[in-house]
Amino acid sequence: MDLDALLHHYFGSDDLDAIDAATLDHGKHRLTIDFGTERDGGRKFALWTLMDGLGIAPLPAEAFEKHPALRRAAEDYLSAAWKLEREPD
């Protein structure tokens, strides 16, 4: 999935700084609903990573409780992201 396409689909723009709070909240709501109903594992993981970037993702154990491989991938993603945030520039 393409990040810009996802941002445009949910928020009407690929620049979140350019949208108002109501549009952002509405897009987050739509994203959360789509995540909850998505059946394809790869698409669900992509939506989860976007949710994580927006600070609204459920914990991997909750998000992927019935999918151990996706749960592990989400945990690995969070671990890598945490390490990147702590690396000096």
Description:
There is one protein chain. 18% of the residues are buried. Helices cover 70% and strands 0% of the residues. The protein has one domain. The N and C termini lie far apart (28 Å). By secondary structure, it is mainly α. It has five helices and no strands. The model has no long low-confidence stretch (mean pLDDT 94).
Secondary structure topology:
Elements lengths: L2 H9 L9 H17 L3 H13 L6 H4 L4 H19 L3
How large is the count of helical segments?
5
Structural class: mainly alpha
Oligomer: single chain
Distance, first to last CA: 28 Å
Shape: globular
Order of helices and strands: HHHHH
Keywords:
89 residues, mainly alpha, globular
Summarize the structure.
This protein has five helices and no strands.
